[in-house]
Amino acid sequence: MDGPGARRRGAVPAQHRAGARRDGVPCRSPRRRVTRRTRYGRRPAGRESARTRQRVRALRRHCIPRLRDELAALELALEESEHAEAVRRRWAATRGGG
């Protein structure tokens, strides 16, 4: 078929292409969103991965350094208490108590 109304084999008419409705008004999202099944139902994969990246960033910047500081403080307190206990034992051993 040749002529103005002819179309190539396998070509999709303009009104049926992604992003257009039959009345010619473009759809809101021209591409179909990629979704991932989660335990809360279907959610767009892009949004989910962005939230995960945000959580990882928060952990790396805030939570992990805070926990490292707390761990260092606890280790220091434990070391000081062990040192104090050793001093008390030595003192008790020289005094003859115990």
Q: What does this protein look like?
A:
With 98 residues, the protein is mainly alpha-helical. The protein has a domain of 63 residues. Helix content is 52%, strand content 8%. Strands 1-2 form a two-stranded antiparallel ribbon. Strand 1 and strand 2 form a beta hairpin. The longest helix has 51 residues. The radius of gyration is 34 Å and the shape is rod-shaped. The chain starts with 34 loop residues before the first strand and ends with a helix.
List the keywords.
52% helix; 98 residues; mainly alpha; 1 helix; rod-shaped
What's this entry about, in short?
This protein has one helix at 45-95, and strands spanning 35-38, 41-44.
Strand content: 5-15%
Q: Count of DSSP helices?
A: 1
How many extended strands?
2
- Strand-and-helix sequence, N→C? EEH
Decide which structural class fits the backbone.
Answer: mainly alpha
**What spatial form do the alpha-carbon principal axes imply?**
rod-shaped
End-to-end gap: 110 Å
Radius of gyration: 34 Å
* Low-confidence runs: none
Major sheet description: 2 strands, antiparallel
Strand order of the largest sheet: 1-2
User: Percent of residues in helical segments?
Assistant: 40-55%
The average pLDDT is 77
